[in-house]
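Table S7 (text form). Paired inputs.
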Amino acid sequence: MFTKTLISNSPIYIFMGIWAAVFGLNSLNLYPFEKIGFEALSILIGGILSVIIGYAIMSFALQGNGKDQLRDLSHFKAYFYGDSLRIVTIISMIIFLLGGLGSLLVISDLVGGVQMYILNPLIVRGTVVAIQMNQVEGVPLLYKLSGFFISIGLLSNMFGGALAAKGGKHKFIAYLPILVSLVVSLVFMRRYSFITGLILWVLANIFVSIVLDDKKMMKLRRKIVRIVVVLFLIVFVFNYVVVHARSFNRDDIDEYFYESLYSYFVGNMSSFEVWLSDPNDPIVHTYGQTTFRDFYKWAARLGLWADKDVRTIHQDFTRIGHKRYINTYTFVKAMYEDFNITGVLLLSLIWGAGAKWLMYRYLTKPTYITLFSAIIISFSLFMSFFSFYFRNMIVIVFWLIVLNVIQVVIRKNYYNRLIS
């Protein structure tokens, strides 16, 4: 029962755990980063507490109505048993791999050949960032099409994690999306695809395990511990490889790596402090343009918003130490920039309540869509130390549309088989 309760409330435990780790690391003061002041700390703590309060309020509301006891497994067999899960894992993984291959062809052509990944990884990474910032003219259509494939393919990690939880003779297929995520990340010389894919896989594995068989709770508890340890080691090694590849010409590469890793978790509070207290750059509230930038981006494409006023996905770099710059500011920065402290408290409250609601929806009616919703809200809470994940809302909407199409096809085929 303890393990089941722990997992059913894992979104808020993930959130509290990551922030306990961040504040703990910050207290060590391992590097001379800018110290967070009272105002910035108050805003940050206000946002953190609001998320927790929102989650607690929704928990009490669901328990009070007795809704936490409901369960509808009518479609569960269609999605998580038989060949359906294995087939969607394989197809989405192939799409993922094709997207990575297409991107590799374009990037290697722009930098002067695939050998530049070995000879000068830094120029590869610089080219990728320049493309994202729309600073490269004449980027082939293949690159955009490949990005479309990669977005679909990332879902293979969720399917793979679910397949691994289910087990069976095809279990080895479940681990292949992680390998593809690694390859795609190396194509772009970035950590995003691999870390995102890995977390999607792990959370899907854990969340599906709890629904499959209540008798496996004790094994699941030990499994979670193993997963966390292995996940930490994999992320550590992968970060080590990427940082060394992108900064291969430095003499102090090991020291730079540890400082980079430390700043990845702790430096975001320092950058928020610098941004908030900069007297030469007064804050102008943008009322949604930062928090919901994706909607403004698409509005601009439809001619409903000035393209020059759309915020870029990469925020400005801020100096937080002697030679350390960072462009991430924790989740509260976007909310505060848009709506001041009121936005931080209100949006955080809604975020926390939404996390509990989406986890409840999955546990009471497990489908691909509800599983994905529970995973993505948990992932967003994990990444809260870094930034507000839902600034990329259009991608999430796209994933939901893809999953809905997959579910419709599977459900139709499943009931046709039952009838025949």
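Next pair, protein 2 of 2.
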Amino acid sequence: MEFQVLSEDNVRLYIEYLKAAMAKEPDMMIADRVDEEGILKRVGDPFYQGTVSLLAIENGNVVGRIEYHFYGCMQDGYRMAYVDWVYVLPEHRHRGIARGLFAEFEKDCRAHGTDQYYLIRATNPDADKFYHSFEGAELNEMPFLRKDIKRTI
């Protein structure tokens, strides 16, 4: 297993992974299609450089990813990370890939002096089993606010 940060060098592998994920579990995806052209533009767009997509690559193919970003609180200096997305292709699950992605992510957190990370987790049985296995983690049911800013025309 190899871990690589998404870049212009491996973006085509990432797109193929997204197509496979979309074909296998469309209901688990947040988009309704793979926007190849948009992804090719975003991978070099400075706005997205603060987001890390870490890819798990096996035999030349992306089989999973974790996407995250760092941020901090100006008032108290607390340094945090938010995990935007974790997904492993179904046929590669239960082999330690997600655990490996989290281990690499936590290394990056330590390198950035991160105090804490969080994510909004899935609650299906497999996800529950996975997240309950984390040592020193707290699982909550917390309400959150979500508001779309982008205008619909």
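The beta strands are 2-5, 51-58, 61-72, 79-88, 116-119.
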